[in-house]
Amino acid sequence: MFGREGAPGEQPYWIFKDQIKCTGCRRCEIACSLHHEGWIWPEASRIRVFMLFPGVEVPHTCSQCEDYPCVKSCPVSALSVDSKTSAVIVDREKCISCSLCIKACPGEVPFLHPKDNKATICNLCNGDPECVKTCQEAGYGVLNLVRERPSSARRLYSRKPEDVSKDLAINLFGEKGKEVV
Amino acid sequence: MPRGYAGKYLDVDLTRNRLEDITFDEEILKIYLGGRGLATKILWDRLGEQWQKVDPLGPENIFTALTGPLTAIHTGARTCISGKSPLSNGVIGSTLSGEFASEIKCAGYDGVIVTGRASSPVYILVTDKGGEIRDASKVWGKNGEETIKAINAEVREELRKRMPDIGAWREPALIYTGPAGENKIRNAAVMQKIAHAAGYGGYGAVMGSKNLKAIAVKGRGPMPDVVDPEAVKRLLALDARPRPGSMRRWGTGFGGYSTGAGSSSEPVRNWQEEWHDEKQFGGPMFEARYWVKRYWSDFNCTTSCMKISCIKEGPYKGDITDCPDYELQAYCGPNFGVFDPGENIHLSSLIDNLGFSGINTANTMAFAAELYQRGILAKEDLGFELKWGDADAFTKLAYLIANRQRIGDVLAEGTYRAALKIGQMKGVDVTPYAVQVKGVEIGAHGIRSGRDSTPISYALSVQAGDHTSTSSDGFREMGTIFSDSAVFCNFTGDRTIQWDFLKAVTGWDITSEKWSTVNGPTVFQTQRALLLLGGPDLFWSPKDDDNPPRFYEPLPTGPYKGKAPDRKQFEEMKRNYYKNVGWDDNGIPTSETLKKLGLDDVDKVLNKLRK
Fold first, then answer.
1. Which of B175, B289, B320, B345 to mutate to test the interface with A (most CBs of A within 10 A)?
2. What angle separates helix B415-426 from helix B358-373, to the nearest 10 degrees?
3. What would be the CATH architecture of the domain defined by B243-441?
């Protein structure tokens, strides 16, 4: 639908997720961790697919909230906003693993890295996210890189995977959806 | 441990409440890899000499859930379940898709081996910190959907309690069994993700016999290191190219119509026919009304042959399953005389939820329906009428078997054992209606039309009626043993690069030729030996290397009407096959065959079968 719009540029970009189409293949996690960690590492991937009930797959990653509560919450200024991409950048040297950014995030998106316990957040791969590329190449089109436009396609707050799952379950399974998540 | 392996296996003794991390020598892994191969080796080493006395449903049996070196790195992550099969009394490698495979690797384990029997219902939880045995009394008796929901919630809560600050915990991956496994129905499956089953072999019953409801796993580590990461990345990119076309579009979900109408090889009313032309049973009728997700995959898959169906109104409202795939479309559809997509989805969903193997138990159910048709079973045996096409009656029958009530208690033993027992009860030989080979009900691919499987596909297979591991020329079989032992899905990926893949991961130079002449046959011959040793309730002889009687009856309908394999031709194929794979006139692997592979110990034990 959207694919990857234009070249990485001045306006804020964000990853639009066509959530209900997610197949659960986790190729995004593989691509992300190959890029950032050099090897396949699902729990270190900056995008993680939750599956609280089979069929209800929720690709979960940062959506760059307008007011960046995570950045504001950091007591040591380890988080900042990339002026070019609008992504949240973590200064791992400064991070003290206090988890306040996780608590501040409306979607509980950040997590502490399994290796060094540092806050870990999607940095949009400097404007050309690997997860989007792989999802598009695979022909699923769940992850799309879109430019923010004032009248449509506005970035919204992330939501907790539990809440998204509840919505998707009802959308997929009707009334039965209320029972499964 | 070699590269490609997480480095250890969790060895659990449920009787003694003991968990231990164990390893295998590189020399062993280099031959058997993992999955089906390694399971065969473990079973041989630990139980081979007393095999005939080992009760598959006794505490002495071993349950294995193993990955291989290519698991989750190669596209299409699967886990291979094995043990001594309560159906064939041999060893069956039964694989199922899902994230159990990637999670266990990321938790630092290559598999779980379970012996003994817990004194009360338990599940095993595996994390980066190791394995633990946990109480499952709250989920005992629960169906698949309820089990997933309950254990997901409990494990997530527990892990969050243990590490509250790291952020949102994902759900664990879960293999489990339903009420059918708990009640030791011989054809109970090991399930994952509602509708994925390791069905062949009856290992859900083995779990039940051990009081083991589930194994949950959550790993936070990376996938194991490989020898040549750059090569793996290149191969992965190549291997993971999207595969548009019919497998992605329909999966096998068009088969319920086309296998009947096209190749006349679909079970219709317990294989009394193999042809039908019921066009309302075609893929689009499932899709238009019931598919709620068109592409559904498991870890590292770009084929997406799975789809999700859900019934949203009417008497079966709330039933969820996959496409269903061809096997259950056939076995819970035309095989029951059911040609309505909604009823088929309902029956498939029910059978999965109860924890049955859908192929095998549905075969037993239709066997019962044919006995009812012939007046051998009566309403008094069942408590209700059992007519072809009556979805409600088949629903009742599924519960009857799962709960071992009335005749369900006999049918719970699988088609062949039930046939022997009903024969005694009723004083009439009903084995001609049992469509199975060596205790294993055959897959939904008939042999009579000659357009699907061959006369020796099942008759000579070391996994008996298992349609995923059929016999052909003694060579192609080895390809299946490879994917079941390196453990990846054979519906995805590019099979021509698998040897390069193995080398890039492990560094081992195993060529196609070496695998087909050394490694593969080592597994194959050991499986054959264990199948022939069999026991304790049933033993197989060369005359059991045969097709079910029904497959010699000419097809009664359809474009291939009148066709059936010729017995004489079959006997000749059988003799040739024995010779090809190095078996003697009784189908026993010869000393020469075994010694050439270094299987002297197997040869020695087989002496007790040689006259």
1. B320
2. 20
3. Orthogonal Bundle (1.10)
